[in-house]
């Protein structure tokens, strides 16, 4: 790894660790970065009662799993690219295999599978931390380098970013 790539990787890792403190959505949900290893990120979320789909069950609302997968996937883009840049989720598909029960912490393990200059391809598994049961899988694409020309209604270009 060149000195430049090492510095960029360090920046990406630093960003991942700061994610839980600086991104309000992640902080509000209680997401924590567990590890960043190469192109893979592991995040943890401890469920809270307000995350349950219904008051009389302890099943976690699926949108919480979706948010966890999206956040871990975004961080995996930084880890895989070894650089920081504006990104945007293009597509995220989740397959729910079994309910996530609120008495167990969740782990999201997101891996950057492939990068092009413009798109990152991510796979993410959501697991129950206590028994490593696979709860859901996700595949996502993220647009890279989203900063640039802006467009206004009517097709007119607006300068700036």
Short description:
Helices cover 29% and strands 36% of the residues. The chain has 161 residues and is of the alpha+beta class.
Describe this structure in words.
The protein is globular, with a radius of gyration of 17 Å. The strands form two sheets. The chain has a six-stranded antiparallel β-sheet with strand order 1-2-4-5-6-3. The protein has a single domain (3-147), classed as Thiol Ester Dehydrase, Chain A, CATH 3.10.129.10. Helix 1 runs antiparallel to helix 3 (62-81). It is 29% helix and 36% strand. It starts with a helix and ends with a strand. The protein has 161 residues and is α+β, with helices and mostly antiparallel strands. It has three helices and eight strands; from the N terminus they run H-H-E-E-H-E-E-E-E-E-E. InterPro entries: HotDog_dom_sf, Thioestr_dom. Residues 64-131 form the Thioesterase domain.
Strand content: 35-45%
Supply the number of helical segments: 3
Structural class: alpha+beta
The fold-level CATH name is Thiol Ester Dehydrase, Chain A
The main sheet comes to: 6 strands, antiparallel
What is the helix fraction of residues, given as a range? Answer: 25-40%
- Average pLDDT score: 83
Order of helices and strands: HHEEHEEEEEE
Stretches where pLDDT is under 50 for at least 5 consecutive residues are none
Radius of gyration, in Å, reads 17 Å
Q: How far is the N terminus from the C terminus?
A: 31 Å
**What's the level 1 CATH class?**
Alpha Beta
Question: How many β strands by DSSP?
Answer: 8
Pfam families: 4HBT
InterPro entries: HotDog_dom_sf, Thioestr_dom
GO molecular function: thiolester hydrolase activity
Organism: Marinobacter manganoxydans MnI7-9
